[in-house]
Amino acid sequence: MAAILEAYTDPVCTRRVWMVCPTYFSASQIFIDAGLHQSLRAIPEDDEGINIDYLGEQMRDLDRVLSTNDDSVRPFDSGCDHWRHLLISRKQIKSCHSKRKFYAQVIYVVPNFSNPSGRTLSLRRREGLVQLARRHDALIIADDVYDFLQWSMLAEESRRPRIALLPRLVDIDRQLGAGPGSDGFGHAISNGTFSKIVAPGCRTGWVEANAKFINGLVTLGSRVSGGAPSQLSATFISHMLHTGALQRHISNVLQPAYKSRHNAILHAMRGHLKPLGVSMFNPGSEDIVGGYFVWLSLPEPLEADLVKRHCWEQQNLIVAPGTLFNVRGDESVVDLKRNLRLCFAWEDEDVLQEGIRRLAVTITALLNKEVSQLR
Q1: For residues 118 and 320, is the Cβ–Cβ distance under 8 A?
Q2: pLDDT tens-place string over residues 104-162
Q3: Distance CA 113, CA 119 (A)
Q4: In 3D, which of 251, 115, 250, 117 has the Cα closest to residue 194?
Q5: Are the beta carbons of 106 and 282 closer than 8 angstroms?
Q6: Are strands 279-280 and 138-143 parallel, antiparallel or unpaired?
Q7: DSSP track, 132-155
Q8: Which residues, 6 or more positions from 135, have their beta carbon under 8 angstroms from its beta carbon?
Q9: Which Pfam families match (predicted)?
Q10: I need a labelling partner for 151 at 20 to 30 A (CA). Which of 8, 14, 107, 264 fits?
Q11: Domain 246-374, what fold?
Q12: 169-171-172 Cα angle (round to 5)
């Protein structure tokens, strides 16, 4: 993603970065490192994924701001007059390569089995999101990193999960053809990674987009000088693809293992956490689930940061508090103080069940205290 931002964004020309919230916890820093720290904005999600009605309203408000010279209207909340002047005057900081462009806005999403919430973007929302991107000269960066990690919730072992839940955003954008002002670059790209489907240390990935977009990406100086950043790993992966070893690894190892671990953690949560008032996001389908995570809501008055601290100090247990997944600089839009993310991908079933038991012990102890003592 850093290479995409280097090639196709500018700290001034790119006026907003809209990020689904809760969001992947490392994504904000990648945008900040690209000089876009002033532009990050959180967009809430519901059971269908990112809220495109809210996003559309925010985009229209931004258009109104940019169309006025009224000094009382501030595009940024920071009060930085220099940045405000640059934004309204539409100057740029970086020089633009002849084979690239700078998008006016960026939209960041994880469409399938989102990290951390596990939600999947509905078809209706996918189509609406692409249309919004086309109207506002936005680039959708879709982290499609969990697409191959899906399985059926149904008991029949013979039933194989569908290979693709829904058309990807890059597919929808491609089917619609070139959008106004895109100059053939398109408005959606798909990021994939082999680190999720080969091994965590395999830091090799791929980008799928329009040919013109890819041609601009490979003109980056770092790519011209060094080529692929992980050539040795790519050689091994190429062999796995050509021999079918990777496909077999996904079907015969990863999907069955993750299904078993997911079932184990769900069973433990129903037995230990549900009676305590802990609720879990329900993907709304008895057919296909996937990814690495389950997303919990704690009962009042508990807050996730407190639970995290007590889990670590008293139970030697690591859990991720919802506040970790806020969009940096725009934390007030979505309240994540009572959410927890649990990962079931790494540990075996017995360890997962023991972890849920320890989490339940912690929550029980905290609930038995007076509210004033929950610090």
Answers
A1: no
A2: 999 999 999 999 999 999 999 999 999 999 999 999 999 999 999 999 877 655 455 55
A3: 5
A4: 250
A5: no
A6: unpaired
A7: HHHHTTEEEEEE-TTTT-EEE-SS
A8: 59
A9: Aminotran_1_2 (PF00155)
A10: 107
A11: Aspartate Aminotransferase, domain 1 (3.90.1150)
A12: 65
Domain ranges of the chain: 1-239, 246-374
- 359-373 per-residue burial string, b: 16 or more CB within 10 A, e: under 16: bbbbbeebbeeeeee
Cβ-based neighbours of 162, under 8 Å, separated by 6 or more? 150, 288
| Residue in the structure block whose two tokens are 């931004």 | 62
Number of Cβ within 10 Å of residue 343's Cβ equals: 19
Quote the pLDDT of residue 355: 98
**CA 179 to each of CA 45, 52, 126: distance values in angstroms, whole numbers, following the listed order:** 26, 19, 16
* Tens-place pLDDT, residues 229-286: 788 899 999 999 999 999 999 999 999 999 999 999 999 999 999 999 999 987 655 5
Report pLDDT digits (tens) over 1-50: 999 999 999 998 999 999 999 999 999 999 999 999 999 999 999 999 99
Q: Strand locations in the chain, DSSP E?
A: 16-21, 40-46, 49-50, 105-109, 138-143, 150-152, 188-193, 205-208, 279-280, 288-290, 293-297, 320-321, 339-343
Q: Which fold has domain 1-239?
A: Aspartate Aminotransferase; domain 2 (3.40.640)
* Phi and psi based region of residue 294 (left: phi greater than 0; alpha: psi -120 to 50; beta: remaining): beta
Q: What is the pTM of this model?
A: 0.90
Measured between alpha carbons, how far is 31 from 52 in angstroms, rounded to an integer?
21
